[in-house]
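Methods, example record. To illustrate the input and output format used throughout this study, we show the complete record for TPR-like domain containing protein. The sequence lines were provided to the predictor; the line carrying structure tokens was produced by it.
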Amino acid sequence: MFGYTPQGMQLAQDTLEKMNARGFFLSPKMGSDLLLAAAGEKMGGYTTANYIWDLLQSRNINPSLPAVEAYHQGLKRREIPADDPRLLMVSRTLDNLRLRFGGRRNA
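The corresponding predicted structure is encoded as:
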């Protein structure tokens, strides 16, 4: 990414849209890495992270635990209602991943 500036996030999203239009799909590793990077956006509409999440969900790809945690934290930092369908799905995915992999963290 070109940084967390609005121009950088727009550039990232435009690139992802072009890739998707040409038939390139994200692998689980690449999707997780991009979601983790896009989740670091502090200001703005969080559209790039949402777009990456939607791309992964459309292909039934579960991102890595750190990527989902970062995305979940980013969603919670924004003013989103607790019953928002996207937040509920991310929370459910995070809970499932924590059950599978949660005990292996070094903190």
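Annotations derived from this record:
The chain has five helices and no strands.
The chain has a mean pLDDT of 87.
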